[in-house]
Amino acid sequence: MSESTEAARAVTRHAYGDDPSQYGELHLPSGTPHGVVVVVHGGFWKAQYDADALGTPLARSLAGHGWAAWNLEYRRVGTGPGGGGGAPETFDDVAAGIDLLATLDLDTSTVVTLGHSAGGHLAAWAAARGRYGWADEVPVTHVISQAGVLDLRAGEELGGGAATALLGHPPTEADERFDPAQQVPLAVPVWCVHARDDEDVPFEQSASYVERATAAGADATLIEVEGGHFGVVDTGSAAWTRQLELLADVTQDT
């Protein structure tokens, strides 16, 4: 199932702001989409990592399996190209980028955020954004976190202190509006896909999130896979096939 079963119909770029990083690329399948998957790339929120390199392969695969894939770029932490992000700018961009889907002639009754590493953090955060003052004209209906940094306080040292760089200070209890671990329970299903041998983001990030979320009454599931940190975004891997199966289950439930 890792190979595309349908040809992508078209890829178009749409801006949601004036900054060069405020855009998404929409990959459409040849037929009516099953729904929309918002692809949120990782890279510890740093400017040198971008949607083209990290998100495009996933978006192509998703379109080939019948999904409208919205490969979302956003301002990241740093100066120069891709920079200008942080809190709240990065979060503002993800919220605005998702809401732009309302203008793209799509059925947004099913919107899955799919994010890797730091993108997993943003994918989970996006499902709760409306609680914390961001618009959510296009609500998230499902979340797939791929080796996500879901607890900023526990992950403070990851990526050379990337969470501190994102927030502008070390993460604390006062950062609930930015921290998925402090936002449980979500009102939508969450799948945390993670490998135990992940050397970049500890497996415990997903395991502890699911434990905390389920204790709070959320629908959260831990999916253990193999392949380290990047196996979850390798479209030829068993881990990616498992995620396609999760998405197939979404279509059956909606």
Describe this structure in words.
This protein has about 250 residues and is an alpha/beta fold. The protein has a single domain (about 10-254), classed as Alpha/Beta hydrolase fold, catalytic domain (Rossmann fold, 3-Layer(aba) Sandwich), CATH 3.40.50. About 30% of the residues lie in helices and about 20% in strands. It contains 6 helices and 8 strands, in the order E-E-E-H-E-H-E-H-E-H-E-H-E-H. Strands 1-2-4-3-5-6-7-8 form an 8-stranded mixed β-sheet, with helices on both faces. Helix 5 links the parallel strand 7 and strand 8 (about 220-225). It holds the Pfam family BD-FAE. This is Acetyl esterase/lipase. Keywords: Hydrolase. InterPro entries: AB_hydrolase_fold (IPR029058), BD-FAE-like_dom (IPR049492), GDXG_lipolytic_enzyme (IPR050300). GO terms for molecular function: hydrolase activity.
List its traits.
alpha/beta, eight-stranded mixed β-sheet, 19% strand, disordered N terminus, Rossmann fold
CATH architecture: 3-Layer(aba) Sandwich
Largest sheet: 8 strands, mixed
Spatial ordering of strands, largest sheet: 1-2-4-3-5-6-7-8
Order of helices and strands: EEEHEHEHEHEHEH
Portion in strands: 15-25%
| Number of H/I helices | 6
Distance between the termini: 21 Å
CATH class: Alpha Beta
CATH superfamily: Alpha/Beta hydrolase fold, catalytic domain
- Report Rg: 16 Å
Number of strands: 8
Question: How many discrete domains?
Answer: 1
Overall outline: globular
Mean pLDDT figure: 95
CATH topology: Rossmann fold
What structural category arises from helix and sheet content?
Answer: alpha/beta
Question: Approximately how much helix is present in the residues?
Answer: 25-40%
* Quaternary structure classification: single chain
User: In terms of per-residue confidence, which ranges show pLDDT below 50 for 5 or more consecutive residues?
Assistant: 1-6
Region (Disordered): 1-25
InterPro entries: AB_hydrolase_fold (IPR029058), BD-FAE-like_dom (IPR049492), GDXG_lipolytic_enzyme (IPR050300)
Protein name: Acetyl esterase/lipase
Organism: Nocardioides thalensis
